[in-house]
Amino acid sequence: RPPAARMHPHSPPSSTVVLGIGNELMTDDGAGIHALRRLAQRQAAGCTFVDGGTIGLALADTLAQAARLIVFDAAALDAEAGSVRVFEGEAMDRFVAGGPRRSVHEAGLQDLLAAAALCGQLPAQRALIGIQPQAVDWGTAPSPAVAAAPDRAADAASALLGRWQRDDSALVDAACEATAA
């Protein structure tokens, strides 16, 4: 299991916090935790991996230290079981805040993001990677329809991290060119 983040309150922001949400004892509800582990196995540089369990405001300090945030969670996407969808930036905010609840953890995530926004600590680069569950019942393994979704979610996160890194590099290059001119 990836270690929970342990950061000093005065430490500089971590480049990326990757947060997995879910209850592994409830079949597909644990998809976010499984995706977190898949990504942690392949991509550790510059990332802090946090098993958020069923979430709470106790994670506010961890979020405050994030320059970027990726959240994995099982969510009602109105799609086929095992579907993976990425909500980035304001699309994430709308998904978490709008309409009927789409995740059993949504209220906790919504509260966590609202607290960060109120404190001026909401990461500018943020994304929710949702996985459509098939079943949320007692069991420690995902349903067959969802079993491959954590790998696809980790792939989506890797692509997102790569794009964010390229965007950062382009901004630094542009700043250097402007300074040289």
Head-to-tail CA distance between termini: 49 Å
SS element count, helices: 5
N to C succession of SSEs = EHEHEEHHEH
In terms of DSSP E residues, the strand content is 15-25%
Please describe the topology of this protein:
Elements lengths: L15 E5 L10 H12 L4 E5 L8 H5 L3 E7 L9 E5 L1 H8 L8 H13 L6 E7 L17 H32 L1
Parallel strand pairs: 1-2, 1-3, 3-5
Antiparallel strand pairs: 4-5
Overview of this protein structure:
This protein is α/β, with parallel strands linked by helices. Helix content is 39%, strand content 16%. It contains five helices and five strands. The protein has a five-stranded mixed β-sheet with strand order 2-1-3-5-4. The chain is globular. The N terminus is likely disordered.
